[in-house]
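Researcher: Here's the sequence for the chain we discussed earlier.
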Amino acid sequence: MGGMGRAHLNTPIRQRFNAPLGLPAPCERMRVCITGICGFVGASLARFLKASSPDLDVFGVDNLSRAGAETNLAPLAALGARVVRGDLRLASDLDALPAADWVIDAAANPSVLAGVGAGASSRQLVEHNLVGTLNLLEYCKRHHAGLVLLSTSRVYSIPALAALPMRGESGAFILDTNQPLPPGVSARGIAENFSTQAPVSLYGASKLASEQLALEYGAAFDFPVWINRCGVLAGAGQFGRADQGIFSFWLHAWKVGAPLAYIGFGGRGTQVRDAFHPDDLGRLLLAQMKGQPKGAPSRVFNAGGGPANSLSLAQLSDWCARRFGPREVAANPAPRPYDLPWVVMDASLAESAWGWRPHLPLTDILEQIAEHAERHPDWLARCGG
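Model: Thanks. This is the structure I predict for it:
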């Protein structure tokens, strides 16, 4: 599905790359549009693409609704990445965009609590994450642009994940592989064939629906679609909050003495997440924009740090205590909606198809965030954390 053969501006997309990964053909610059370009992931990808392939014409759209997003405007302009202020929920805002060869969709309301807690309403969540995708797909159809959709680990079934057998070790939940396991999970993590049966949260449902819609549009209108279900992305400059961007939030809050608490699971901080850096995601996206994967014809791939790049909150606190000095963390055993004990992504399919695996170890990512926290003690306040 999502064939590559129909001509766009007289040159098929695949012919617009030359041999070096990600570089456009000498006769014409490859144009890449990034939605949510002023967000942490969007801005990081823009920097990576420009550094890896300087001849790429990178531009993007952002409504600047996220606190802190405006801080990326000047750095992006310095890179030569144009920013158009616009809202994906408004089809007319996309009509004003120039044509692109590829679209990287990094715009979303990314909180698992969106629609059920403070902030965006349930209708606003769906408008951001699904109606925005629909308008973007119409843009791709009109310009015959390829789409790389950034999805989430939150498309996987909450009851199925919560029921996985766990044991405690060194202050962290660990998958008990000695117990029977359902399809799609192993010591490597959660794979693409793990259950997506509801409930997955309103956020997860909006992204899962976006995935299906994107695949159908790609098949119906013959443009390439790649979907990446991302684990936690982390790095310096992330607008972290307790419900999204947890690694950045935890380090910044630790450094400035802001309140921290282990929520749920007995208040012990044993819940585990894996993380990876946007630069590693950028390498995968360049490979996907270049051509076809090896082996399996899947359009859907997990991307994450995997077991080697995973930590519990308690282990993260131990790292912070060594880096910044010890402090107290409150314990709140009351459960929080949609929280899970263990979410680690198995990216084996992306490795076999694209030769991709994350390069940057989690310790290096944490050190980058720590240095940023030292340089920007007001970061949490600026970013609404």
